[in-house]
Amino acid sequence: MKERAKTVFLALAVTLFAASLICYPQQSLEASIRGLNMWWEVVFPSLLPFFIVSELLIGFGVVNLLGVLLEPLMRPLFKVPGVGGFVWAMGMASGYPSGAKLTARLYQEKQISTIEAERLASFTNSSNPLFIFGAVSIGFFHNPHIGIIFALSHYIGNICVGLLMRFHGKSHEKTSSKRDTHPFSLRTAFRVLHETRLKNKQPLGKLLGNAVRSSIQTLLMIGGFIILFSVINKLLYMVHITDRIAFILQYILNIFQLPKELSIPVISGLFEITLGTQMISQVEHAHLLEKAIVTSFILAFGGFSVQAQVASILAEANIRFQPFFIARMMHGCFAACLTYLLWKPLYVHFDTVDKSMRATPVFLTNHAPIWLLEYWQFLTRYGPLITIICLFVYVLLLATKWRKEIVQ
Questions:
Q1: Burial letters 245-261, b for 16+ CB under 10 A, else e
Q2: Apex 328 CA angle, 73 and 158, nearest 5
Q3: What is the pLDDT of residues 93-107, one digit of tens each?
Q4: Where are the transmembrane segments (predicted)?
């Protein structure tokens, strides 16, 4: 009975989505173009180098070396192997959904167990510093200093999630066999590096080609989800479902003494973080602190678009998505609370004539990360060209692979 109800619900949802596309073709096209622009201007050129380098580091055994060196840190704190430190670092540097992709890769290579993969995916996915400082704080809020609050609350909150998720699957882990671990030693680390490289007998050219193909395939999937959820978000607004949900959300915001004007931006952010954070920054009837708290929650939650990307990646490796979703809820709560707690210690408040709240940081006043804004502008200007060139290379690699298969 439950499966039948699920089938009917999914069929009805897809049918309504198709009908909405027919009723609002112009709005759907505009939303689709907006999602496409975000993907090929920023997402693709910013994530591709990290994905390719990560594949190469895994192939050459550098990740195994780091695993031995980071074992004394990652195992006691988060109850994951040392290779999780590499996933954690790359996830913070490159942003969503790099942590999920690398976790799935390590799980497929049997370097981590199922429970360890679920723990690792829960706290290694986060927004990258480029998006937090370049897009949100500078681009949307026009305040480079507020990025310090966003970044600290975001990354500290993710650490708190990792510390809590170490208890995930503890009862199951007792009955399973303990995995082999290497003692901390530079000699052991380099021995593991050498053994891993010898096991991987692929030539450099083939390894590089596989890394490029795998990375671009993942980014194509990510682009599809970005466009899809951009359209869904717009259609929900057009059929007035967003307004109805916002009416209910107003009561929840009122519990936390947040203005009702933030309800629609929050709903947009729950689907797609870029649009949501931009709308939050434009709300006039809200103090900067209130907008910062809500923005931190949205950045940590990730949005359904990002979560769909992660769910697709984890599903390919047979890793459960539910622990990741629970971790995102915890991360959102931690980030929002940390934003509130860090606001007074790091900022000096003063009122302006129009009684709106603004802020000036106590430190780093003259050292705002303006280079991030320049990098963001570089991506938006040359990102499409980089994407087109990379897609052309991808087509050439696929054609070469197919031709070899036909000859064989």
A1: bbeebbeebeeeebbeb
A2: 30
A3: 888 888 999 999 999
A4: 47-70, 77-96, 292-313, 325-343, 382-400
CA atoms within 13 A on the CB side of 201: 1
pLDDT band at 185 (very low <50, low <70, confident <90, very high): low
Pair 249, 266: CB distance under 8 Å: yes
The tokens of 380 are what?
């938006």
Burial class (CB in 10 A: 0-12, 13-18, 19+), 269: buried
> Shortest CA distance to 64 belongs to which of 209, 211, 195?
195
Indicate the SS3 state at residue 350: strand
Q: What is the spatial distance between Cα 90 and Cα 113, in angstroms, rounded to a whole number?
A: 20
Closest CA to 365 of 171, 207, 181, 148: 148
Cα–Cα distance measured from residue 368 to residue 220, given in angstroms and rounded to the nearest whole number: 34
pLDDT band at 371 (very low <50, low <70, confident <90, very high): low
Give the chain's mean pLDDT: 84
- pLDDT for the residue numbered 140: 87
**Alpha carbon distance, N-terminus to C-terminus of the chain:** 50
124: enclosing H helix or E strand = none
> Which residue reads 């259609």 in tokens?
235
CA distance 288 to 179: 49
Average pLDDT estimate for 285-300: 93
Residues in the chain: 408
Q: Which helix (H) or strand (E) holds 61?
A: none
Q: How is residue 363 annotated by DSSP?
A: S
How would residue 359 be classed by pLDDT, with cut points 50, 70 and 90? very low
Two tokens, residue 21:
């596309």
Report the alpha-carbon distance of residue 77 to residue 163 in Å, rounded: 6
Block residue for tokens 């981590």: 112
Question: For residues 102 and 104, what is the distance between their CA atoms, to the nearest angstrom?
Answer: 5
Work out the angle between the directed axes of helices 204-238 and 241-255 (0-180°, nearest 10): 90
Do the Cβ atoms of 61 and 260 come closer than 8 Å? no
Peptide bond preceding 97: is omega within 30 degrees of 0, i.e. cis? yes
